[in-house]
Design goal:
Strand order of the largest sheet: 3-2-1-4-5
Oligomer: single chain
Mean pLDDT: 87
Strand content: 5-15%
Helix content: 55-70%
Number of helices: 8
CATH topology: Rossmann fold
CATH class: Alpha Beta
Largest sheet: 5 strands, parallel
Number of strands: 5
CATH architecture: 3-Layer(aba) Sandwich
Structural class: alpha/beta
Low-confidence stretches: none
């Protein structure tokens, strides 16, 4: 099972979001147990921006087990088509093309881990979505999840 991960879930974990950090951590662990986690270059760029150095960001992504998987021409075209449909339907520029690239990339995977399920369901029909907001709460901290993932990968 290959799960594409959206920026909002990574930021929940990296920034220890009060509302979604624990839930995002829990569902990320479940995804790792079920297979691979991947993120396209848009997600990497957006998430990297919250770290003081790119090295620290890369280390955290490695600990989490998230692999870099860039978009290709086919994915870029699918994103452009979805963006066009959105704009033709009167969609405002509150959605940027990066969101469409993330969605088109996720369509090449088995599912997308995101809190933005309504948007992705509307413009990427058939895309399986996991929403951390629907996960059960735990008492795990950001440090707990990073350590647990690191331990599970080394055993």
């Amino acid at each position: 099972m290959i799960t594409a991960i959206d920026t909002n879930v990574l930021l929940d974990i990296f920034l220890a979001d009060e509302n979604f950090g624990e839930k995002s951590s829990m569902i990320l662990r479940r995804c790792l147990q079920e297979g691979a986690l991947v993120a396209c270059e848009i997600v990497w760029a957006e998430a990297c921006a919250v770290f003081p150095t790119s090295e620290e960001f890369a280390e955290k992504m490695e600990i989490l087990g998230v692999s870099f998987q860039p978009v290709d021409r086919r994915i870029a075209i699918a994103a452009g088509e979805a963006w066009h449909a959105y704009r033709q339907a009167g969609g405002k520029r509150t959605r940027v093309v990066a969101d469409f690239l993330i969605g088109a990339h996720a369509k090449t995977c088995d599912r997308l881990l995101t809190r933005d399920r309504g948007f992705y369901r509307k413009y990427f029909s058939g895309l399986s979505i996991l929403d951390p907001g629907q996960a059960l709460s735990t008492k795990a901290t950001t440090t707990d999840i990073l350590e647990a993932v690191k331990e599970s990968r080394s055993s």
